[in-house]
């Protein structure tokens, strides 16, 4: 049986997932057979170009039509179009993989979670950094107790693409479409990753303090000739910080920004336990720094051995993989769950849990006080 | 003229400052002549040993006597003995260099600040990390506008000496004597350093959110044979985090812990501006990572050139200095101010300003809300 | 027009090139259309499996048959089967891309070079590390004179897969089949890379001194149950070092080993010129450390900007690529040259030039003296 | 009893050793009592200034006079004045600590070694890098077999102070006075360090290949106003490389340069054994990178624990020391040997052994062939 895949969105994430789908047969031969079936978008010309390039046999400008035709639906559009098509697909019994964050608002995210709960097909939230081999390896170390009792988590995600005040306005800078800024775009990844790695050990987030800041309040919209047409308001945060108290008494500190000169995609997570510590940085994603009981310093581990998660599918030790490989792993796991009727993590439930944290950080910032999370 | 120096405290800090005093003549020949005159402490035997080793000609078990005899008074005792002797010295017209944090409570720190304001001799707070050449070099870059408008500050101070729950109780773990734990001991350094580096640019702290946590609530007191005599309560924080909003709209995040396995003395400060960024780490204190306009990545600068602050007094380029050298620079500047009747920074006023931040972080933690700083 | 590709070899390199061919359409849409046509090997069953997985429509156990059927021939077999099929293909007017080193002996490499000179189709040597974006970026800096006059080159390639004396015997350890060991397998890459980067500036190698050493002289051959069948002699070097004098007066030092515990694929090249320096390491292949005139330290540059070589075909800044991407770039350039009738570098001529260096290092080692290169 | 110390030379090394002597009482209270007695030099005015600054009670312009007056003689002058005064001191029964390399020529070094053999007082060669705690810690690991059988040693020493062709001529650039250039000044350190660390394991050097190169053949002598008075020939190497074959079959590669832009004092040594590896870099001298059996990557060890060599004399863990501390350790060990009638390593015998290597590298370069050592 071949799974026909429908994909809404053909820009950055569309390319990343299409590539992942294309690479499965050669490297994950036991993955389900799939066809890149229908690519969904609004601009017919651009859509046709993308479909050819990304290897889709059909296009559709109406996502409802697409859902009727496919076995699996990928929602890779902007945040404000996540809820409706995803819910419709789930109601039609079509498994959904949706990009993160789940939705611009907690209400929409809740509706999506509920739709997933009612459906008996997988509904996945595409937190791709869970699928970095070094992160999976870290997860295994923590589960095995190598770090002891977890006491502190530190996450940050630094980018620099908005440092220039003349950088163009985009949908990601609009509160209605994006929900939030650095918080939802970058912080969602960090909060999910922290939960993935230590959630079982620290028992969930008890309460948070939040701080959101916008450094540049309006940005130009450029016409085709590069002239400024107008200035539009930036209605999301350029940077956020958050403090977290976990149920276990562990503490966390989180931060993201799009204004950190010199940091392109610097997503870092650091964890300290009673027996050891670890550090991960996305710009060196093949590496994990690990300190275990008895060690005098961090070991810089190149997580490219055959025994490392997913690595046996790729290349010999020391032949590093890239950012895009996380999508291949994610698609492999998701499609395997679809084909085998299994569960997929991170689910919409998890996407909603992250959304609750994002929402709590925003409320904490607005109120100037710590906010309980459930 | 020779300045007779009186020093209260002969343990870690006593050794650090005594060494600094001893090294001045060879490396800073234009420093005032000094004599290590009186060492003050309670245990006469240990005191006599220390005095001989540290090169003091006299000892005293009563600090009041010492103050009468000396030209300059160093208060290097535990935090709870900072206020009274320092104030007495200042009232007697004796310049004071006091270890940080200024006092266990804000009230005591205020009294010290007031005493300093009333005296016309220098009253310094010994934030020695201001005297790292790489930090001074960073300060110069920021003052020269090389980083542009400052937007984000990130500071953390990680140690690991309390990870073991059987590590012994000490005065630093008692709220009455120490004031606070990681916050006052380590965080005070970070908050001072942030203010030193970017205070002029970001206009002071507007408000803070705080989080203090104690992971191990009691600790053993050991007798001489290593047997546990009793368990005493730990009444300070083992770790803290803080969020900071500056007047200018810049934001900060701060953190310290004594529970970070694998980090011995890892004091890090990172700053992002509209034109550049920099990173400093105390465990590699001869280096500064700098990214300036036009750079594509951080330059790892070895701050050991003749033209670098204080470095011409020491060794040729590439011949690195150590932690203790910061005390030599600090003593040189302080004693020069004493001799020349000049000002010394960081002053008690600055020590008090840091104390206000520490106090605000504690109150913010207690109240669960952001607290305004003045 | 579609180019039918024939590939001899279906193991490590077969997989790497097949993947590259498969990825061209999505990421390099202006690449020539190709078909993965015929896969050549001896073991029919394994071959059929590989052909299906790698997307080849045909298989052949006789390379002569394959050459008749295809437009382009990839020779990815062991070194001792490089010469005959490659020469036959070129004589038939079929372009050839051959893995490195060109041949086990200088004579065979010379014959291949001559065949390439007589053919008017591209004959490429697959030194894939030339196609790392950071290396291309480095090449541009050197060509632009950013490093000034080149004075020193330092290259090393460290692996650890033979540290265990019970690691199994393999064809790479046989002098007749492989030519040499660490020298030909790893050193060939380094010597080519050095020539690519600074060859124009330093005017070629004048003479070399060589040192080859074998640490473990025989190794087990295991049967299917993991029992040792026999021990076979290791007749190649486990490690080599070389000193190089360039025509310009520049000097080089080179080294490779398969016995460096903790180094999986650590290929490093460092260059010092009169104005600057640079450092590259394959395990962090997205980065280049660059020091230019006026810099105080190396900049750690993440070579993932749109303006960086090849990068605009992939992902946004900071989204790192992997080892395999070098093959995509190489295949793109090679196939473009085939389709457009252009030249491809590195050619067989260049492969021969590297072979001369390998040969000179071996002779220098045997003679215990410096050996002139031409 | 107090040892009166006489020191020839009051520039860089004079300052380094004077400082070391001054620091002993406070940090190494069990060191012999010493007096900085006589400082020897030719320029009376500069000498008097230095004596005051360095704390010497007497000066002498004739080293023979000084030797008569002192209990210990430090020869810190240029290389060409090492032999005669050192030999005279030893013949007078005065212990000698002489800076490295032992002499400009092998003959002189042999005479010094012979004089030391005939004397029954310590004669030390001041290879101070043996006294870095991280190096001592490394030595312990190797002796304990943690690295297994040693197979490869790699040393390099990179500086940049001659990159500028207008940098002034100095005695270090004259073959008669200095013996050699980068080889003798920097390479001597590396070769000694390699021998210290692995000499016992690899059984000494069997033979070497050498390469010396001068990039800038003459340099200006400036007058007091900064005008060029004349150009003098550079008659030493600006850079060298060497290949080494050890008795055990282990191999080495060594290199030094004064032309490496961006490297101030970058002395690196790397060792690979059958069970582990280690890396050390002088610019981060508090750290050692260690990989032991079972480790997946190098541990970055901060060698500042109380249990680390010499460290208990200084500061708590994480409070890093500097370059100058190596001299304190060296002086402590040397003076203890003098006082206790014990042996000191590295001795003149060891200094001579290094000199033989330097000489062999030079001859190998001249002859263009490997040269046996012994």
Summarize the structure in words.
The structure is a homotetramer of 374-residue chains. The first copy, chain A, is of the alpha/beta class and 374 residues long. The first copy, chain A, folds into 2 domains: 2-128, NAD(P)-binding Rossmann-like Domain (Rossmann fold); 129-321 and 347-372, Dihydrodipicolinate Reductase, domain 2, CATH 3.30.360. The first copy, chain A, is 34% helix and 26% strand. Chain A is built from 10 helices and 17 strands. The first copy, chain A, has helices spanning 12-27, 44-54, 63-69, 83-91, 106-118, 133-143, 175-178, 182-202, 325-340, 348-367, and strands at residues 2-8, 33-40, 58-60, 72-75, 96-98, 123-125, 150-158, 205-213, 218-222, 228-233, 239-246, 251-257, 266-273, 277-281, 287-291, 299-302, 371-372. In chain A, strands 16-15-14-13-7-12-11-8-17 form a 9-stranded mixed β-sheet. In chain A, strand 14 and strand 15 form a beta hairpin. In chain A, helix 4 packs parallel to helix 5 and helix 6 (133-143) packs parallel to helix 8 (182-202). The longest helix of chain A has 21 residues, at 182-202. Chain A starts with a strand and ends with a strand. The mean pLDDT of chain A is 97. Chains A and B meet through strand 7, strand 8, strand 11 and strand 12 of A and strand 7, strand 8, strand 11 and strand 12 of B.
